[in-house]
């Protein structure tokens, strides 16, 4: 799967600003500044919106702002070939009424079901013909590939039960490539002190969300850095200060390559004829 990382960065920045507005006193524990500077930032965040844009701002009216920019991106395969293979499954839930098999010559010695769709992932529930739920300790999946479910209670041959279960309908091969991406979150404002303060807010947002970016997006390697940039010449005579927070990450991107249905049954009841010459 290919993640739109810019959207996630946009979300954590907006959520971070909203969190600080609702818990403005947390700034006292986030930033260490000279007397009075934190109070000015508190007042600013409570009374002035900070725009967040993907790409560069077009007019001074959009300032102050955070600009989300892609600095670079490249794949980083270091082994033979240019991709790796992975596998995913399309899991489907169905509910069916099926007869119990409990006669001699059956596959199992216990009463059992043979589910028509397989391989089996899980049995969600089973009800007998009166609608009562058969508890989980009264049955067991003995062979998920063959869809066999054995019963430990006394069900008779041909007795109908209603079973809700999940099975793998198709298998999907995934083409997977490792990427390294570098994003810049630039802080633009007409005040140098404000740029410095907002830059620290961005730093806090990324440190706070580091685990989230790993667990939800799989950005399992991250590096944070920053630098000042030249003023934006397109805004002259207005003097616009810029400082960039750089976010480097490594992650895996995958796309579906081929979807193949599972084989649920094999028919061997075929006759073979021979042409015997005399």
Q: How would you describe the overall organization of this protein?
A:
The chain has 278 residues and is α+β, with helices and mostly antiparallel strands. It has five helices and ten strands. It has helices at residues 5-22, 27-30, 37-47, 192-208, 210-217; strands at residues 51-54, 65-75, 84-99, 112-114, 120-127, 139-143, 148-151, 160-189, 221-229, 241-261. Strands 1, 2, 3, 5, 8, 9 and 10 form a seven-stranded mixed β-sheet that branches. Helix 1 crosses helix 4. The longest helix is centred in the first third of the chain and has 18 residues, at 5-22. The protein starts with a helix and ends in a 17-residue tail after the last strand.
Features:
278 residues; alpha+beta; Alpha-Beta Plaits; Immunoglobulin-like; 2 domains; 3-stranded antiparallel beta sheet; elongated
Given the structure, what is the number of helices? Answer: 5
What's the CATH H-level homologous superfamily of the largest domain? Answer: Phage minor tail protein U
* Binned strand content: 35-45%
Helix content: 10-25%
CATH-defined architecture of the largest domain:
2-Layer Sandwich
Radius of gyration: 31 Å
Could you say which structural class the secondary elements and strand pairing correspond to? Answer: alpha+beta
Question: Oligomerization state of this entry?
Answer: single chain
CATH class designation of the largest domain: Alpha Beta
Instruction: Please outline the major beta sheet.
Output: 7 strands, mixed
Residue runs with pLDDT of under 50 for 5 or more positions? none
Order of helices and strands: HHHEEEEEEEEHHEE
Question: Termini, distance in Å?
Answer: 64 Å
- Classify the fold: give the CATH topology of the largest domain: Alpha-Beta Plaits
What average pLDDT do the residues reach?
86
Compute the number of structural domains.
Answer: 2
Task: Identify the overall geometry.
Answer: elongated
The number of E-state strands comes to 10
